[in-house]
Amino acid sequence: MAMLLVIITMVMAVILAVTFLAGQSTSTGIEENVRWHNVARYIAESALAAGLHHISADANWRSDSAGFDGVTDYSLAGGNYTIQLVDGEYVNGVLQGDGNLTNNTTDPATLTVLAQYHGVTHEVRALITPGSSGGGGPSLAVTGSIALSGSASVDGFDSSQGPYGGTNRGLPSLFVSTNSTAARTISLTGSSTINGSAYVGPGANPSTVVYTSGTSAVTGTTQALAQAVAITNDPLPSGLPSSAGNKTVKNTSITFSTNQHFGSLTLSGNHSTIYVTGHVVIQCDSDVNLTSSSQIIIGPGSSLQLFVGGNFSASGASQINTDSGDPTRLRIQMTGSSSPSVSVSGSSGLCAQVVNPQGDLALTGATQFYGTFGGQQCTLTGSAKFHADVHGGASGGSSASSSPSFTWQEQP
Questions:
Q1: Domain span at residue 193?
Q2: Among 200, 194, 133, which residue's Cα sits nearest to residue 390?
Q3: Are 88 and 197 within one domain?
Q4: CA distance 28 to 293
Q5: Residues 179 and 293 occupy one common structural domain
Q6: What angle do CA 209, 212, 213 make, to 5 degrees?
Q7: Does residue 88 fall inside a structural domain?
Q8: How many other β-carbons are positioned within 10 Å of the β-carbon of residue 5?
Q9: Is residue 406 part of a domain?
């Protein structure tokens, strides 16, 4: 009997020892899995953060996604990850979208990363909801009305990709906006067209605010802004020289390579030209007028900030910075408070970023405008064309857009 008890005791001891060792092995395995999962999670979250940073920094992320979308089994920290950007959002585990990232800047999108480390996987996903800008900001933003008539049109290009033309035109990411909620604030008649989307004031009914007749159309979507667009001027730089009085350039050319200050500035006669070299600021206390075939030419690597206290007018066949095709070289800021006007008529062309918080932009005849505008109202008549730069917002001192918002979801 004693021997039996000894044997039983020994068997129990062996069982307990084996159980203990097995538990230790299982515990070690669990710890390894936890550790590997944490690494996989780190890889997934790092890749997702990089993708979201790309989206935040690039106004054209929908069409420029090749740098991070579709990356498969990319090595990171001893593991790898796959990242994918798709149109739409997941509802109850099912993707709801049309599969096209670029056809509608107001569509949500989903960025998903699947990472693995030592066979352990972790998935993380972000829902991308466009801000009031859809990511790029309105290229034409007003607090009041936008009116197009005749065969006038608005379309988009991206100045960071070069001048307007070829494949760099008619970009679907273009949109215009008004802060107004009043009926027919955006009005299109005749065969006029906005080749993009139109946003109306916060809380407004787009079908009431946007009016079309004849064969006119807004080819994209219409919806309300999440918040009003603030339109402001940049501050006038300090240290500008005292006014040299009124300046007239007639049938001649002149080069500006330093800052200038005038009462008014007039270019008239055939081929009257101002050349700008370097980074120049010109302050005009009153009007700026260009007539006939006068020109302002801004050289490569140069820029001009033009602060205008009165009205700005270009008529005849005047050409302002159109040779460069780069609106970022010229920034026109209307500083007057008594409804200052920016008027471009005849067959004139203007390539610029124009900010006129207290006034309007009027394009008439066969004019061509390349750039952005922020102001109270914008009117296009005849066959005027507004080629809007989608690369920059039109608000002036601050961005016209709110960035896309992200909802981060860890998948079990």
A1: 140-389
A2: 133
A3: no
A4: 83
A5: yes
A6: 145
A7: yes
A8: 9
A9: no
Identify whether residues 274 and 318 lie together within a single domain: yes
Q: Are residues 9 and 81 in the same domain?
A: yes
| Whether residues 276 and 302 fall in one domain | yes
In a domain? residue 111: yes
- C-alpha 286 chain-centroid distance: 32
CB neighbour class for 9 (10 Å; exposed up to 12, middle 13-18, buried from 19)? exposed
Report d(CA 150, CA 138) in Å as an integer: 23
Q: Partners of 374 in the beta sheet?
A: 141, 355
The count of residues in the chain is 412
Scan for tokens 């390579």, then name that residue: 257
Q: Which element (helix H / strand E) includes 407? A: strand 405-411
Helix (H/G/I), strand (E/B), else coil: 19: helix
Q: Does one domain contain both 217 and 359? A: yes
The number of folded domains in the chain is: 2
- Kindly state the DSSP code that residue 329 receives in the 8-state scheme: G
| Residue 397 included in any domain | no
On whether the pTM is more than 0.85, the answer is: no
- Do both 118 and 60 map to the same domain? yes
Could you list the pLDDT tens digit for every one of the 412 residues in the chain?
A: 444 344 445 444 544 444 444 455 555 667 788 888 888 887 887 777 777 766 765 656 777 666 566 678 888 888 888 998 888 878 777 887 777 777 666 577 888 889 898 888 988 888 886 553 334 579 999 999 999 999 999 999 999 999 999 999 998 888 899 999 999 999 999 999 999 999 999 999 999 999 999 999 999 999 999 889 999 988 898 999 999 999 999 999 999 999 999 999 999 988 899 999 999 999 999 999 999 999 999 999 999 999 999 999 999 999 999 999 999 999 999 999 889 999 999 999 999 999 999 999 999 999 999 999 999 999 999 999 999 999 876 665 433 344 455 555 565 5
For residues 161 and 224, membership in a common domain is answered with yes
